[in-house]
From TrEMBL:
Organism: Adhaeribacter swui
Residues covered by the Pyrroline-5-carboxylate reductase catalytic N-terminal domain: 7-83
Domain DUF2520: 131-255
InterPro entries in the record: 6-PGluconate_DH-like_C_sf, DUF2520, NAD(P)-bd_dom_sf, P5C_Rdtase_cat_N, TM1727-like_C_sf
Signal peptide: none
Ranges in coiled-coil conformation: none
Protein name, per record: DUF2520 domain-containing protein
Cited SUPFAM superfamilies: 6-phosphogluconate dehydrogenase C-terminal domain-like (SSF48179), NAD(P)-binding Rossmann-fold domains (SSF51735)
Domain of life assignment: Bacteria
Length: 268
């Protein structure tokens, strides 16, 4: 492992929570935790060895090799306008959607990206060793430094330019956020009937494993891809009193059937 680095965490939410602990466990030094709400910064700092909590965005006296901004995407640009960093500091964000170019208006700092392709929940313990981390920076030296930091917590580190990162983030929304929402619908339907959601766990696990072993569209199953109209109508009847769920069901059924027809034409 390369020499440990000192890190300042800008943010005290889910991403900062997991990154801070992982970085420290890997031997790096988390020297500061910033949050607009001091109590949140204090709460995270208490779980770390030497981190100083603050709600002051003036970091001019903070000695850190890397400042990691782990804030909501829609506040990062405005935060950069008011934050004060030591001159020539390396400041990176963890966003999947924000480009590296957001740092161009801040000539006094060096910009970069440290993007973990993962979903974070504070209450769920996580080993980041298998979490891919995409790196981007303006200079080879900064890329190297960020890769060393990333490799201290993950085995999967790679160069990831802004355009590709946006596509990965979009795909991740479908694969993670939308999938979780659909699981939420399944959970709701079952619990309303006092049925155990875990009955679906083997099915969901097999679906995910199969999706990464084959092209997902090619292994689609279910009444929609079979064009089993009788079953589809039965499902729609069950959803009569849940119009929002019925709308989702109809949209996905239509899209599955459309994709199946496209694949069938290609196979002819």
């Amino acid at each position: 492992m390369a020499s440990p680095l000192s890190v300042a965490l800008i943010g005290a939410g889910n991403v900062a929570w997991h990154l801070g602990r992982a970085l420290e466990q890997a031997g790096n030094h988390v020297v500061l935790v910033y949050s607009r709400t001091l109590v949140k910064a204090e709460f995270l700092s208490e779980t770390l060895l030497h981190a100083h909590p603050t709600q002051n965005p003036d970091f001019s006296l903070v000695a850190a090799d890397v400042f990691i901004i782990a804030l909501k995407d829609d506040v990062v640009v405005e935060f950069l306008k008011k934050a004060v960093f030591p001159r020539s500091s390396l400041v990176v964000h963890t966003s999947g959607s924000l480009p590296l170019t957001i740092f161009e208006q801040h000539a006094a700092i060096r910009g970069g990206v440290f993007y973990p392709v993962q979903t974070f929940s504070r209450a769920v313990a996580m080993d980041l060793k298998q979490t891919p981390i995409g790196i981007e920076a303006s200079t080879p030296d900064d890329v190297s430094l960020l890769k060393n930091l990333a490799f201290s917590i993950s085995e999967k580190v790679f160069d990831l330019p802004s355009d590709a990162r946006k596509v990965i983030h979009l795909a991740a929304v479908f694969a993670c956020n939308f999938t979780n929402h659909l699981l939420g619908i399944s959970h709701d339907l079952l619990t309303q009937q006092q049925l155990n959601f875990t009955v679906l766990q083997p099915l969901v696990t097999e679906t995910i494993q199969k999706a990464f072993a084959h092209a997902p569209f090619q292994v689609q199953t279910g009444p929609a891809v079979r064009f089993d109209q009788k079953i589809i109508e039965q499902h729609q009847q069950l959803l009569q009193d849940k119009p929002d769920y019925a709308e989702v069901y109809a949209l996905l059924t239509e899209h599955i059937q459309k994709k199946a027809q496209e694949i069938a034409k290609l196979d002819q």
